[in-house]
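For the sake of transparency, this paper describes our internal protein records without simplification. The record that follows is passed on verbatim for readers who wish to inspect the format:
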Amino acid sequence: MPRIVEGNLVDKGGRYAIVASRFNEFIVEKLVAGAVDTLLRHGAEDANLDLVRVPGAFELGLVCKRLAESGDYDAVIALGCVIRGGTAHFEYVAGEAAKAVAAAAYATGVPVIFGVLTTESIEQAIERAGSKMGNKGAEAALSALEMVDLLRKLE
């Protein structure tokens, strides 16, 4: 039987940055609340959480990379909401945000978690921000906790 290495969902003194888009703020604030609540419930200390605001989802990647490079955080969580409209703008913003957040993680070796909703409608966004589809901000926080613990175990 192989040895199994996986992260646990218990914080052990980690520092977390949450980078939140102000665009579609009425949705993103629910994601932020879910992420903060989840981190605290799993042992993170309020003093070890920082919230940084950016204008929109497109700007998340640059700020996530800067924070990850700083050495001050064990994980960075990107939260935003992009809702499809009648133009191709959705594809550009959602796609570039995802690429930039992934690039920040790869470039720094720090977990940078993509918690950006990409939905077809406002109703879908509301469902994923704390109603019947759960809270994707909370899910992003769980991923951050697990990745921090896993990377510590792999050191």
Q: What stands out?
A: The beta strands are 16-21, 49-54, 75-83, 112-119, 129-131, 134-135.
